[in-house]
UniProtKB/TrEMBL annotation:
E.C. code: 2.4.2.22
Top EC class, one word: transferase
Name the UniProt record assigns to this protein: Xanthine phosphoribosyltransferase
CDD domains reported for this sequence: PRTases_typeI
Residues holding 5-phospho-alpha-D-ribose 1-diphosphate: A149, K150, G151, G152, A153
Gene symbol of the encoding locus: xpt
């Protein structure tokens, strides 16, 4: 109990200083596991076990960064982006969250948008699907996800938004692997990318921030 309370006090202290970026970086350094030069595991707090206090602050930070744009819906992809998007949506006036599905099922609408996505982590291609009922022409859509590496998931979601005739207002990423070209690819397309933590290198199993 004492150890838990000390951790909470540290979180509160950092937030009182307005130092969210350092808090996130410290969390990655403390709890992140580097498998190799390409793979960083953060499943202790972000995409398997969820640190709700941290995700709340992530949501607030995304709102601060995108406070200048109107957001009608937040789009993410299952499953890692769902918790991030849902908690963040509270700070965007509780706008609906839509998550792209990776598998067809009987209860999925027959009218859907589809896009092919290459997963760098899993080294395979798959389709994402969104019902046409949930993204409409003219809606302003903000994309959120846990990681940005090669940009495959983001490009797939952008394709879905374009198929719907909706407007992309930006891409919010918790952790960007800046040593890969995903961010550059998106920015070349004129996409606004806001990454909360940017990793420059994982060489020698050491996390280095940009």
């Amino acid at each position: 109990m004492m150890k838990y309370n000390i951790r909470i006090f540290k979180v509160i202290f950092e937030l009182m200083k307005g130092n969210f970026m350092e808090l996130l970086k410290n969390k990655i350094l403390t709890d992140g596991i580097v498998n190799d030069e390409e793979v960083l595991k953060v499943d202790n707090f972000l995409n398997h076990q969820i640190d709700v206090t941290l995700l709340n602050e992530i949501g607030k930070e995304f709102k601060r960064r995108f406070s200048d744009v109107k957001v009608d819906k937040i789009l993410t992809v299952e499953s890692s982006g769902i918790a991030i998007a849902v908690i963040a949506a509270q700070y965007f006036d509780n706008v609906p969250v839509v998550f792209a599905k990776k598998q067809e099922s009987r209860n999925l609408d027959p009218e859907i948008y589809k896009s092919k996505v290459y997963s760098f982590t899993k080294n395979k291609e798959y389709e994402i699907m969104v019902s046409k009922r949930y993204i409409s022409k003219g809606e302003k859509v903000l994309i959120m996800d846990d990681f940005l590496a090669k940009g495959g998931a983001a490009l797939g979601m952008i394709d879905v938004i374009e198929q719907a005739g909706a407007e992309l207002v930006g891409v919010g990423i918790v952790i960007e692997k800046s040593y890969q070209d995903g961010s550059a690819i998106l920015e070349e397309k004129g996409v606004r990318v806001e990454s909360l933590a940017r990793i420059e290198s994982l060489k020698d199993k050491t996390i280095r921030f940009k």
